[in-house]
Design brief:
Elements (H helix, E strand, L loop, with lengths): L6 H5 L3 H13 L8 H9 L1 H50 L6 H13 L7 E8 L4 E8 L38 H30 L3 H58 L1
Antiparallel strand pairs: 1-2
């Protein structure tokens, strides 16, 4: 069984409710005002915001591609530098010179640039680079060929030897512009054509030889009959044309005479 509340508890029981109600009233918003322009912009700007997001993604993709291209060009330049250094080392080894480290070479270059003298040329190097290309320009002033290290160039197999003069090479026949395969193909096609022609002639002769005397006689008779029929038709056409011409001539002359005779007869009868 619960203990009965004291008078103080009963009298102060509503204080907690009053405190909570006062805090709620303080946090309550007195008035809500809407910005019509901002509301209209938000409601009608869906397409614009979507396009802005697409453009933002597109610009970020372009920036990523550009950065990847720049990194690739940087790697290529580094590889070219390493390859050039390796080529220099190979050339020095082929010439029998000592291979020097990169630090020593840099120190020598610095010493050469620091030394001043009329006999030594002055070199200036400048690098110009962009996203796609790297250009190194070296300017040498007062260039003296005698300052270059002398060495015996390796004679290639194609270069002439001064001690042994080159033998005159015999002249060769002119080479046709058409490749050998095309020439062989044309010759083969020509041979095939000749074979087909000879085969047709042989078949024609064979067909003639296989005919009997009666068949040949019958064929000659049919040819003679055709020629006679053609000649008859030609004669008939010629005769018809001549007959028409003679009739027109006779009709012209006799017509006038007959009319006059008939007229004379009538006149004579009247008399």
């Amino acid at each position: 069984m619960s203990r009965p509340k004291s008078n103080i508890a009963l009298l102060t029981e509503g204080a907690a409710y009053i405190k909570r109600a006062r805090a709620a009233r303080q946090e309550q918003v007195d008035e809500i005002k809407f910005d019509d322009d901002a509301r209209k912009e938000w409601l009608t700007g869906f397409s614009k915001r979507k396009k802005a997001k697409v453009e933002d993604r597109r610009s970020r993709a372009k920036e990523r591609d550009r950065q990847a291209h720049v990194d690739e060009r940087r790697k290529m330049r580094q590889e070219l530098k390493e390859r050039a250094a390796q080529n220099v080392r190979d050339v020095r080894a082929a010439m029998g010179l000592e291979d020097k480290a990169a630090g020593e070479e840099d120190e020598e270059e610095e010493d050469e640039t620091m030394e001043a003298g009329p006999s030594k040329p002055r070199q200036e190097e400048a690098e110009f680079s962009d996203e796609d290309q790297l250009a190194t320009v070296t300017i040498t002033e007062d260039f003296d060929p005698s300052s270059l290290p002398t060495f015996n160039p390796l004679r290639s197999s194609t270069s002439p030897d001064p001690d042994h003069p080159a033998k005159p090479t015999p002249s060769r026949a002119p080479v046709s512009l058409m490749p050998a395969s095309s020439g062989r193909a044309q010759a083969k096609a020509k041979k095939e054509k000749e074979k087909v022609k000879v085969k047709k002639e042989r078949e024609k002769e064979r067909s003639r030889n296989m005919e009997t005397k009666g068949e040949r006689k019958k064929g000659k008779a049919m040819e003679a009959k055709k020629r006679g029929h053609k000649a008859t038709l030609a004669i008939e056409r010629d005769g018809k044309s001549r007959g028409r011409g003679a009739a027109t001539k006779r009709g012209g002359k006799g017509g006038r005479g007959g009319a006059s005779a008939r007229g004379g007869g009538k006149r004579g009868g009247k008399k």
